[in-house]
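Example 3.2
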Amino acid sequence: MLLFFLLPAVAFSQVMDATVFIDKVMAKLKNDAALEMSYNYKVYDDLGKQLQSDCGTMILDGDCYALLMEDMKVWCDGKSQWSYMEAVDEIYVTDAKSDEAQNMSPLYIMETCRYGYESSIIFEGDTAVVTLVAQGSDGIVDKVELAAESKGYKLQSMKISLSGQGYIVVELDNYKANCKFDKTAFECPVKEFPAAVVVDMR
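Structure, written as tokens:
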């Protein structure tokens, strides 16, 4: 009888702990802005076979961000997002509030997955891993796993599992806080890609 009453309390506490931890990670990202981090991006299929990888630098300042990788570069100034794909030499422009643009922002991913997802947390040494599992079948994202420092709350990695489309792993390193960036750092330097075709999807 005692276990019967204790188990729901333990489960509730675990959910609360995970949610509180995500809040602390988000607060860290916001308070340390502007940020610069090394960015390692890998895409896998459902069987775990790596399909794509890229690396570079992420800069983040609230709603503004830039992902400057070797094969792909993304800029968002809070109003528009530009994605440059080197393989096809094209620049895709979308509204910053579109799903395509928002899903590139760590802050947006964490904020969105706090609702409609069942959360749990485990501590592995100096790292805490929060797992968020979708409770419905309508979304694109099935599960998100966030790893961050258990005490410093610095985001270390994200694993995003997509419905029937494999998963994406993003690893972050070389965390630099309170950087100063000109607003142009979050805008696509279109003139640097004179031959690129601009596809405006807004």
